[in-house]
Amino acid sequence: MVVVVMVVMVVVVMVVVVVVVVVAVVVVVAVMVAVVAVVVMMIYAKGAEKTRAFVSHLGDAEAAVAVMSTILLTKRMRSGKQRRSVMVVYIEPFIGVVED
Prior knowledge:
transmembrane; single chain; mainly alpha; membrane; transmembrane helix
């Protein structure tokens, strides 16, 4: 009888440990996903802000071209693996114009 009680206690403790570990992993993954989502949203917001300021300096035809290139840039960023380098290369000209 004592052996059965000990085995049951060991099993209960193991189940509790497994549940705690799984919950901890889920919480850590959720926090990481949230942080990545916030960073990506901030990057997109900065890019959109600079693009809007850049387009406001241009005439209608040039603005249309700028908006199209921004749409193409966004699609390329989403499909490509080198997101950082693509952003730096394509948004850098906007930064130069906005600061001038």
